[in-house]
Structures are given as C-alpha cells and as structure tokens.
Amino acid sequence: MSAVDVAERPRPEPSDLTRPFWDAAREHRLVRQVCDDCGRSRFTPQIACPACLSTASTWTPSTGRGTVYSATVVHRAPYPGFTSPYHVVMVDLEEDWTMLSNLVGTGAEPVAIGTAVEVDWLELDDELTLPVFRPVDAGAGR
Amino acid sequence: MSGRGRLSDVAIVGVGATTQARRLGTTSLHASLEAAKAALADAGLTKDDVDGIAARWPGPGGTVFQPGSADWAGLLGIHVDWIGDSYPQGVPAVLDAAAAIGAGLCETVLITGGQAGVMEAEAGKVAKYTRPANEFVEPYGSFTSTQFALVAQRYLHRFPEARGAMAEVAAAIRNTGSANPEAVMHGRGPYTAQDVLDAPKVVDPFTRLDLCLANEGAAALVLTTVERARACRKAPVVVLGGGMEWMRQQYVDPPRYEEVRTVGAKAARRAFSMCGLGPEDVDAFQLYDVNSYEVLRQFEAIGLCGEGEAGDLVRERGIGVDGGLPTCTDGGVLSFSHIGWGAPTLKIIEGVRQVRGEAGDRQVAGAQVALAAGAGAGAQYHNVVLLGPDR
What we know:
- The complex is a heterodimer.
- Chain A is mostly beta strands.
- Helix content of chain A is 9%, strand content 36%.
- Chain A has one domain.
- Chain A has helices at 3-7, 19-26; strands at 31-35, 41-42, 57-61, 65-74, 86-93, 98-103, 116-123, 129-135.
- In chain A, the strands form 2 sheets. A 5-stranded antiparallel beta sheet of chain A has the order 6-5-4-7-8. Chain A has a 3-stranded antiparallel beta sheet with strand order 2-1-3, with helices on one face.
- The longest helix of chain A has 8 residues, at 19-26.
- In chain B, the strands form 2 sheets. A 9-stranded mixed beta sheet of chain B has the order 3-2-4-7-1-8-11-10-9, with helices on both faces. A two-stranded antiparallel ribbon of chain B has the order 5-6.
- In chain B, helix 5 (162-178) crosses helix 10 (292-301).
- In chain B, a hairpin with a 2-residue loop joins strand 5 (201-203) and strand 6 (206-207).
- By secondary structure, chain B is α/β, with parallel strands linked by helices.
C-alpha cells in the first residue's frame, strides 16, 4: 500500500461517540469500550452495553494481540485508496472483542484462521492513524 | 389462527418490470413509474384503485423529509391511506403491505422501485449501495461481497469440499439465466463449475462468476385482498406465509459465521407454520443468490438439510429448472438482474410467474408453491415469503 493510495482512502468522520477510538489510534493505542457495570467489551462503539444496557463505560486499552477469526484477500479494489491485492480480516482480540481490519506484512494468500496477530499502525496523514494488524512472528518469542 | 388479519387473506394481483439491462437510457424514477404502470395493467387496475404505497423515491427531486412513498402519492395524483417506507421492496414490503391490508388499513398496495441512469457513474467501482459508508468499514476497503466472503471463508474452513458445490451452483444459476431472453446475461455461457473457479478472483473465495450483477431496471407489484383479487385480470397469487429476521445494521459489525449461518431459519419456520407447509413442499426457490455460497447457506437455513450438507443436496437433486430443487428460475441476481433496492422485488415477480404458470420456457412443471427470499448472512438479515394459488 503506497502513500499515494493511502491518501485517497475514505476517511472516517468520527462522531462524539467514536472519536475516543480515533484519538487513541493517533497515539498508537488500541482501545474499546468496556462496560462499567458488567465488564463486557464492546465494538463498534455503542451508547449502551448490548448485554446489560448500562450507559456507563470506559475506553480501555487493549493488548492489541489476537487471532484471525476469518480472512479474505480483495483482488479488485472497490474504490480508490487501495492497491490490490490486500487483506481484510476479522480479528478476535485477547479481551473478547472483534474488529474488522486489514492485515499487512503477509503474502498474497488469505492467512489461516487462528493466525496470531498484533496491532500495527497505518498513518493515513498527520491527523489520522488506522489500526491494522500483522502476523506475530513465531520466532520472536512473544 | 382465526379469521382476521392473516397474510393469506391477501394476494399479489399484478407484477410488472421494465427491460433489465446493463444500462437503461432513462432515470430511476421513469423506470419505476414504467414498472408500476405495467403492474397495474397486469392486474387490470388503475392508479385510482391504489390506496397504499411502498416505494423509495429514487431521487433527486424528493422532499427533504424522508423522501419515499408519500412522494409517489403526489406523482400518481392520488391520496393514500397507508405508506410503507421501512423497507419498501421485496419480501418485507410484501409482508408489511399484506399485514396492512389484512388489518384493514388499506385495500390495494402498489410496490415499486429500481435504478436507472446510475451505473455509468459507477464504472470501475463496485456499485455504490455495496460500499458501506461506515467509519469502521470503509477505510479498510471492505464492501458487501467482502462481508459475505468472511462468512464463506469460515464455512469453507469447516467444509472445504463445498467450494466445488459453490461453483456448481453459480454455473447452474448462470446457465438458467443464459436461457432466459429477459436476462441481462442472456446467451452468455453455458458455464461449467471449472469456468467459475477459473474466472478472475474478486474477493476470496469468490471469483467474478460467483458474484451477482449490478445493472439497471425497475420492478413493481400490486397487492389486494383475496376477495378483490378474484375479480382482477389474472388468477390471484396468495401470500401463504412469511417471516423476517434482523440481527443488526448491515455491513457495520462484521458477521460471525456461527451467528449468521442460520439467519432466515426462524423466518422460514414462521412462514411455513402459517400455512402448514414445509421446505419439501416448495416447487420453486427464488433464493437471494448474491453469491454462490449464499445459495448453499439458504438451503441449510430454510431446513432442507443440515449444516455443511447443502453441497451434497444440490449435487444430488439439481437446482436447474428441471432439477429436483428448481432455484432462481429466472437466472437470479447472478445472471437475470440485480437492480439494487429493486432486486428483492424481482424475486417476488418470478415467484408469482411460476405459480401462475406463465414462466414460459423456464416454467417449473406444475409449480404450486414458490419461496422468495431476500438478503443473507453478510447482510445479517433475511426474510422469506411463500406464494401459492388461491384455493
């Protein structure tokens, strides 16, 4: 993914509800809402906990580590801002929540379900950083 | 259930569609009006018989306040007693309209919609309605087919041999469409399963031939009471039963296979329970074939077989017009036509034509019961309607 392509990507337009996620990403922190009452993580952001309906929650840092729940490779970009092929994955994070993201630093084929991954940071521009994931190097001793 | 408010008190009496084509030299509004006029003519009714409308205003030119069915009242020069804007196409529109008619809120409903003059702007991109404008989706280059692919990849992880069956499904439905003179892909093919596998990849596991079209056209329906339907031009096609399931907003939170693989199962059970029928009683399956995997999934969800068994099911029984499970008998959204929001209505039209026995060369012999469905696992909602003759 070249810088030129990245610059053309559709930009998130955060709301009051979602801005803490993007603000944290700029500081290279991956966060999600955790319910103050029942302790469940939730993502994408919601005004209330889908389990207990409590509206009290705290944006809480994740380890950024998880496993691939499902993975695909897009061979024909649907709109500008992407160089095909690229990877779209669902990542199950360690704290029991899930994100749709891109996988970088891997080959041309979809990675295996269950692949261990960790968060990485794609700088779209000075104001916007996109959390993406890369496979954890099995030899790195994590 | 006792006498009042049953779906089966309501019938579809008119169907109408424009030419379905890659490009129509007109606007969405013109096309939708043309389809509406055709449906009214098919029913032998006029606009003055209509007292309920479910239709998207295909803009521009609508009002700033929820453009939709009320705009159509103005366009048609009529006052109406009911409008249905929540999902004014396909199965939900039919079920909502039938419920309104059954409850006595109105008597005759027009449903219309489609798209034209829009695909030129989409050249080189996937159609706009397949690009979810959500901040947690769009920056990652995910689109409708990607979300379905993430489900299919989990399915194939468990049942890898199903990839061959997916290709056979795509080939079979495309070959049905190839033989339909009204299909956008008429005359293209025939295709083999290997052709599907060898086509250019779009998003794993799907190749171009695994995925539906995006084109132009419009489709319309007219519904009224069975009592009134008996005086219309064509034999009534009764709404035997139906059901809807919505899990969450589509294409925001990505779909988890274990959760979405059965979306539509409860809707189908509800539909069948309303009329005392089961999936083996269906003669024509107008499944929502947005991709080859969805056809397998929907056979499993509506209860024809268990998880992972649909590949064997379609191979053993066949899904062509002459097969044991005639499926997408017009060629489906894979080959006949996919007109955006109007596509779900095309499924109803083909179901009606099969029950009426007017499907011509693609008629399923002796078809009595047709099932039509909308959306699927990637969309995280699904709906089902059963159609049959007036008895």
